[in-house]
Amino acid sequence: MGLFDFVKGIGKKNTAPAEQQAAPATPSEPSAQEIANKLLGHIKALGLPVAGLSVSYNGDSDLATVKGQVQTQADREKIILAVGNVDHVAKVDDQLTVATPSAESKFYTVKSGDNLSKISKEFYGDANQYNKIFEANRPLLKNADDIFPGQVLRIPQ
User: Fold this and answer.
1) The total number of structural domains that make up the chain
2) 139 cis-preceded (ω within 30 degrees of 0)
3) Are 85 and 9 in the same domain?
4) Is 52 left (phi over 0), alpha (psi -120 to 50) or beta?
5) Are residues 131 and 88 in the same domain?
6) Residues 110 and 93 in one domain
7) Closest C-alpha among 1, 68, 2, 11 to residue 35
8) The domain containing residue 126 runs over which residues?
9) In sequence order, what are the residues at sequence separation of 6 or more whose Cβ sits closer than 8 angstroms to the Cβ of residue 109?
10) Which residue range or ranges hold the LysM domain (predicted)?
11) Mean pLDDT score of the chain, rounded to an integer?
12) How many other C-beta atoms are found inside a 10 Å radius of the C-beta of residue 94?
């Protein structure tokens, strides 16, 4: 549990369907409730397993709060990254509980010119271990080239 920082405005545009219809907002700025609903829909669309999931969003501080229960530390981290790597979110308040706690992964912010092989070389001393990072970030990544500067990735032990 804790507060995680992300870079606002560089994440993927969240186009997942909202869980519930919220009151209409101006086309340029969605309401906090619309963003929270889209974040909730985004997590569900990724198929990340979580019970009692709720997401709230504070537009004044660009803070998304995530609550629920997950089975593994990996699921917890993927949910945090799924929410934080969206363009409106600058911080994620993690209030998820883990049934089977384990060691936390490191988080890495992608820089311009990075690829998974380069990141793998930095963390594991072997560029060929890039698939370990790719698998640790599925379903958030669809392929190994699907990373962008400012994105935060899980780096497993």
Assistant:
1) 2
2) yes
3) yes
4) left
5) no
6) no
7) 11
8) 106-155
9) 7, 150, 151, 152
10) 106-155
11) 89
12) 19
What Å distances lie between residue 78 and 3, 29, 126, 151, 152, CA to CA?
Answer: 15, 26, 24, 13, 10
Q: Which of 56, 75, 100 is the last residue of a domain?
A: 100
Three-state SS annotation for the chain: CEEEECCCCCCECCCCCCCCCCCCCCCCCCCHHHHHHHHHHHHHHHCCCCEEEEEEEECCCCEEEEEEEEEEHHHHHHHHHHHHCECCCCEEEEEEEEEECCCCCEEEECCCCCCHHHHHHHHHCCHHHHHHHHHHCCCCCCCCCCCCCCCEEEECC
pLDDT tens per residue across span 90-113: 999 999 999 999 999 999 999 999
Residues 16 and 57 in one domain: yes
111-134 confidence digits (pLDDT tens): 999 999 999 999 999 999 999 999
**Which residues contact residue 131 at a Cβ distance below 8 angstroms, ignoring those fewer than 6 apart?**
116, 144
